[in-house]
Design a protein that fits this description.
This is Alpha 1,2-mannosyltransferase 2.4.1. With 273 residues, this protein is of the alpha/beta class. It folds into 2 domains: 152 residues, Alpha-Beta Complex (Spore Coat Polysaccharide Biosynthesis Protein SpsA, Chain A); 60 residues, no CATH class. The chain contains 8 helices and 6 strands, in the order αβαβαβαααβαβαβ. The longest helix has 24 residues. About 4% of the residues have low confidence.
Length: 273
């Protein structure tokens, strides 16, 4: 005879199993054969649009991501654009912005953009947005990478460049400045069910500014001085930063309620609108 406790246990196990399957489905690399680029410039041409075309004039919204120029990245990008079109964008027509720090061939751009009728703008970013800040001490940066070589991505220079861009400088880019909303997607991931609601329209009609879907515990060894730096900045800019005494502030997401220390919460902007 099933008891309430046993039913709850079975339901919990099922929920965990479904969650693990979802994570595997979305995040684990699939064994797809990458496309083989011909690299023959005479066979391909792509007229990269200078402006974005939006489906209506109430607000400006676009989907955006960051890619590299290799065939594996193109394969992932094509897969995800096809998936987004099928699950969300085919009937809506929001444009795509594809950022990169490398040269993309006409072939690459044509193969990626051919999966949608929406505008696809490819944007190569320069070292103003992607790379070292002019005031960065590069000798100190190199030593820090060496000291963090045993930490995941700890010794990667390019990972830092991409993180700096996607978490900060991207929002100062001119093409992003014209948007009211931007939806970050990741090449190689899938949305496993139809998205019937227009998220951009919902946020516009309900006066929403930001949404996020992932919050994990940070690897604290990768950010030894971040929290103190944030506190110092907040203390100097009361005009921008809401006090942690304000009950409506978001400090509660990142501060331990008793010690007021950083609680390790790491808000990702992956899949964020």
């Amino acid at each position: 005879m099933l008891t309430v406790k046993r039913v709850i246990g079975v339901a919990s196990l099922l929920a965990v199993t479904l969650l693990l399957l979802f994570i595997q489905y979305v995040f684990v690399k699939e064994n797809r054969q990458p496309l083989q680029l011909t690299n023959n410039s005479d066979e391909w041409y792509y007229d990269n649009p200078s402006t974005l075309t939006y489906p209506h004039d109430r607000f400006k919204a676009a989907l955006f991501t960051f890619v590299k120029n290799d065939t594996a990245s193109l394969t992932k990008l094509r897969h995800t654009i096809r998936n987004i079109e099928d699950q969300f964008n085919k009937e809506r027509g929001y444009p795509y912005i594809i950022f990169t720090d490398q040269e993309l061939s006409y072939e690459y751009m044509e193969l990626a953009s051919s999966l949608t009728k929406a505008t696809v703008r490819f944007e190569k970013v320069d070292n103003v947005f992607y790379g070292y800040h002019p005031e960065t001490d590069q000798d100190r940066a190199a030593q820090t990478r060496a000291d963090m070589s045993q930490i995941m991505f700890g010794d990667s220079e390019d990972y830092r460049f991409q993180s700096r861009f996607m978490a900060g400088t991207i929002y100062r880019h001119p093409i992003m400045q014209e948007l009211n909303f931007g939806w970050r997607f990741e090449a190689g991931t899938e949305y496993i069910c139809p998205i019937d609601q227009d998220l951009f329209q919902y946020m516009y009609e309900n006066n929403k500014t930001l949404s996020f879907v992932i919050a994990l515990y940070e690897y604290t060894e990768t950010i030894p001085t971040l929290y103190e730096t944030v506190l110092d900045f907040a203390s100097q800019h009361n005009e921008w930063i809401t006090s942690n005494q304000d009950p409506d502030s978001l400090w509660k997401f990142i501060q331990d309620p008793f010690t007021k220390n950083f609680n390790g919460c790491h808000l990702w902007n992956n899949f964020q609108v």
